[in-house]
Amino acid sequence: MIISMKKSATSEQIEHVKQLIESFGYKVHKSKGTERVIFGAIGDERGKEKLTCLEAQPGVEKVIPILSPYKLASRETQEDPTIVDLGMGVTVGGKRLLIIAGPCAVESREQILDVASAIQDSGAHMLRGGAFKPRTSPYAFQGLKQDGLVLLGMAKEQYSLPVITEIMDIKSLEVISDYADCLQVGARNIQNFQLLKELGRIRKPVLLKRGLSTTIEEFLMSAEYVLSGGNSQVILCERGIRTFETATRNTLDISAVPVLKEKTHLPVIVDPSHGTGHARYVAPMALAAIAAGADGLMIEVHPKPEEALSDGPQSLRPAEFKAMMEGLRRVANAVGREI
Amino acid sequence: MIISMKKSATSEQIEHVKQLIESFGYKVHKSKGTERVIFGAIGDERGKEKLTCLEAQPGVEKVIPILSPYKLASRETQEDPTIVDLGMGVTVGGKRLLIIAGPCAVESREQILDVASAIQDSGAHMLRGGAFKPRTSPYAFQGLKQDGLVLLGMAKEQYSLPVITEIMDIKSLEVISDYADCLQVGARNIQNFQLLKELGRIRKPVLLKRGLSTTIEEFLMSAEYVLSGGNSQVILCERGIRTFETATRNTLDISAVPVLKEKTHLPVIVDPSHGTGHARYVAPMALAAIAAGADGLMIEVHPKPEEALSDGPQSLRPAEFKAMMEGLRRVANAVGREI
Amino acid sequence: MIISMKKSATSEQIEHVKQLIESFGYKVHKSKGTERVIFGAIGDERGKEKLTCLEAQPGVEKVIPILSPYKLASRETQEDPTIVDLGMGVTVGGKRLLIIAGPCAVESREQILDVASAIQDSGAHMLRGGAFKPRTSPYAFQGLKQDGLVLLGMAKEQYSLPVITEIMDIKSLEVISDYADCLQVGARNIQNFQLLKELGRIRKPVLLKRGLSTTIEEFLMSAEYVLSGGNSQVILCERGIRTFETATRNTLDISAVPVLKEKTHLPVIVDPSHGTGHARYVAPMALAAIAAGADGLMIEVHPKPEEALSDGPQSLRPAEFKAMMEGLRRVANAVGREI
Amino acid sequence: MIISMKKSATSEQIEHVKQLIESFGYKVHKSKGTERVIFGAIGDERGKEKLTCLEAQPGVEKVIPILSPYKLASRETQEDPTIVDLGMGVTVGGKRLLIIAGPCAVESREQILDVASAIQDSGAHMLRGGAFKPRTSPYAFQGLKQDGLVLLGMAKEQYSLPVITEIMDIKSLEVISDYADCLQVGARNIQNFQLLKELGRIRKPVLLKRGLSTTIEEFLMSAEYVLSGGNSQVILCERGIRTFETATRNTLDISAVPVLKEKTHLPVIVDPSHGTGHARYVAPMALAAIAAGADGLMIEVHPKPEEALSDGPQSLRPAEFKAMMEGLRRVANAVGREI
Fold first, then answer.
1. Taking CB atoms and an 8 Å cutoff, what residues of chain A touch B251?
2. FRET label pair with C27: which of A325, B47, D67, D310, CA 20 to 30 Å apart?
3. Interface pTM, i.e. ipTM
4. In three state form, how does the secondary structure of chain C look?
5. C168-190 per-position pLDDT tens digit
């Protein structure tokens, strides 16, 4: 930590802050600039709140952290990329991209089997489908719940695709774990720390979706919760942040891909369906994500978007998904990846 | 809902959309402008996803909702303000303002009793203190948990102050209900819909904190979750949104106060401690909130902010809190309120 | 400046960076933490780009500035508040608040005289009115230009109110200076540095409106442009920043008031009309601004908002303005100010 | 326009609003829903402020525009893409991508010639270089001004590259036009409407950079200013918007590419240097932009970024640029484009 004193700080205030830093167990390094005194507090600053509280001390101007607050998620701790195994021969984090596709919500047997068949045919590796749905409105369709999981399991068997579905609370952890090959934490739960702690205790891959206003550092801290619980199988998913722009549902932060790939060894995928909110922008943004270095994609596909019970406007039809996959293969090859 | 067709839409597309709207059970009102056809879909549009999915239909340009999606929270449903009873003679929503104060986290018996004594002495009506703490870092202090609740209960008895504390998950609902007079849902859980549903079933007041990127409409939808579960004792709390500005921890959206007071009958309070993140900005923003029409405040007070286990930089010392309360009384009177 | 080296930096890289800092004319202060080397570069860092460019150097993790980049605008340079004299006995920055009111645009002789009469009657001190209007659309009303200035001058004489109007480019500097007692730089021109430089050369007060995405630090740098040109009569005006929230036209950042009052000696006023965009939120936000410590307000008033050529929805009627002024007096007194 | 009345509107208010709409020259279409009355105002709504001012009318809930406010910039007005001719055989908007590269600022004869030689060698088509520099600080390097233009002209001759440079005010329009093949309007001037009007009168291509908080609709309105002045040679450039994320200097909004390509016929290019602010993220974001359908790129290249007078941290070294160009060719081919 760097503690910068005010220009007007008295020598008593300066001395007192020095003593406080030492009393917290840090070595102090004092540096006198032309205008003010600056302290370096030497020692592990992670999780140490006390230094930041020095801001409340008279004469202190600001306290600036130097180290990133995450450790297990950091590239400094692990150079090599983490490869997450999703079962049935599907992995993410290596040369081969991971393409997850499927409807926003499982709606019926026919719907999920139709989609599974179509996406498998187009070369996708994993099936998505919500059974427990977080909805802004209490009056909106909340998902088929356990019935949805059973239908997902059916589609998994029939089309040999591992499945991913969202977990919204600890209560349903067991039943979802029975059916899903990967548990997804939605954007709204990315700082539901109780849930993250529980997911640190299981031995299934976990996919974390970045929240609408989660910084990259906070996103990695959420991953740190799962990692520090003992579960190293974590996948990160950029899905759009909230900005002033309303032409898209969210602003898909593609630059989060190279930033995350630099800072962490965990695989990074992108969800252009939620990121844009409109089917016609999904394919260009999927190509962009892969070109920027993403390890995979999560795409919403629905046989009849105009009749979907949720997220219809952003869902691709099977034929649109197929066309996108063809373009994707070319871009993947152009950047040294494969599908 | 308004469904606007593209200028280039064919008459077949226009006719097909008309039939779809009717098939969803709506009366159609067609209007031909100089450039394009616009449909009005007449019928209750709340919770009806189908109309928004029309965007996926060829020829459709956009779908525009007219009604607000919340009903029970709306001023149109209830004109008179809701007065929430917090016990021990304390209410919020009427002429008297509600001043909640206390430390970010309960840290020790001495700390919580000291604060309770000080804030009661300065005229606060309710004691806050976190027992279960949501922390960005898994390595940070996570709260005293049940021990913290016991200490809160002790302070409540000794100083006759009802208490409020944060609930982070459904599991701790029972134990927290045993001790707290009001349950607080933190900014990070404002769209934890499972938790909101459970809180709709209890008979205790619930305080909802606006999330960092929650729109006012979404905030009211979260309230609607609790209200539609049967619990009408809901308090809303503005506590800062996330913007590009970094001089303050968050940007306290004071204008949310008049907007919320217009749209809903629920009481609205403001938390300038989290909203600004720096003790020196708390008092001016507290005055501003009351001047703008807020029904109360939630203020962090700590006997020794420089030694706090969390949120030290934004906590007032008891003497600072006392000085603020004096200014507050004058502003409250100036706008026809009392403390 | 603090230059933090990567954990993986080689000793050659560390040595090279040290030499570069010295070659830029700075004294180097090296500090070896538990994980990485940190350099302090001692010397005046204002306007020195070279140090920030060190980020491009191998082995460097990040470069962190310590000093604020503005000097003349800083409270460290001048403790006492600047009082700006607007003529006709009107000042801003002292105990008395400055209330500016008037229409968005001067539209006709009758309109501007009506408004001037009404606001003077309610106790406002200064008349606003746009003659050259910045409009998002090239097809919208662009102002009466010089004719508008003449009308403003007429109203000034008749009602003894100094006037303020917006300057959009250097070309109209002379003519506007002939009529206006204070020149306003609009939010969209806050980083029009050529214009700011010219305004540094004149001897008239300048009011700077914060841009929609201007940080407080950048805002002060824009003031620094005018101040460093030799014009010390600068007033700052918060008028809302752009965020994700759409219930208000912008998000009025009331917390900018205490932050600016801490960092600079310049007077700070608030424009709740542009800040909220809706007449019904103007009065509560005006009260909030004064409660938070603002030195004044700028309010849009129009005799018939529903017929205004611009900004009708956010303009108060004269009777509404009068009612607001009454509430304002009470709040001003409550915080030790007067109108 | 759609005018939605409040549920509580009286029949007098409803009738009065109807008459007002008609008095503004619109045909009225009244639609009675289950809860409220909605009016459609039929007629060209572009540039018509009067309808939006109806919000000030008692009983009106909100006013919703249907048409986009731009006309000449719209795909509805011109289906075919505009191809802008930059001279020397270089165009943008067709199959071939436009690659612009060069330093942030022209610093010396040697520097600009070195860069020009390097980028030409790597296959770039156009040289950028600032002569008049907009700088946040009045104490920072402000550009070589006319000398910089002369150096740019020299590099143009020697390496047969058309050149682009920024125009900051109307005063320098003539001298810049003498040297530049395309005039760039910077992000901070995107709503400097006086400047845009002047650029509508010249017969040189103009490149408009999106502002930090400019919506896509406002961006197109700025283009409309130039187009409506008679200059149809307009290029749009996405260069990052301001959000809460600080890991990158701005958030490069890649999704603006498909949105703009849908809404307008004008060419769209991307500047990943300003968009990210860090050299190490430039190449991945350049690839992403092309994959998403951009018509070109603008890239900062400097022979010695660590000694640059501005924007060093985001400038590529010539060797890095060369490597990026190779990757770019592969991605361009993958999406059916060429360099």
1. none
2. D310
3. 0.94
4. CEEEECCCCCHHHHHHHHHHHHHCCCEEEEEECCCCEEEEEECCCCCCHHHHHHHHCCCEEEEECCCCCCCCCECCCCCCCCCEEEECCEEECCCECEEEEECCECCCHHHHHHHHHHHHHHCCCEEECECCCCCCCCCCCCCCCHHHHHHHHHHHHHHCCCEEEECCCHHHHHHHHHHCCEEEECHHHCCCHHHHHHHHHCCCCEEEECCCCCCHHHHHHHHHHHHHCCCCCEEEEECCECCCCCCCCCECCCCHHHHHHHHECCCEEECHHHHHCCHHHHHHHHHHHHHCCCCEEEEEECCCHHHCCCCHHHCECHHHHHHHHHHHHHHHHHCCCEC
5. 999 999 999 999 999 999 999 99
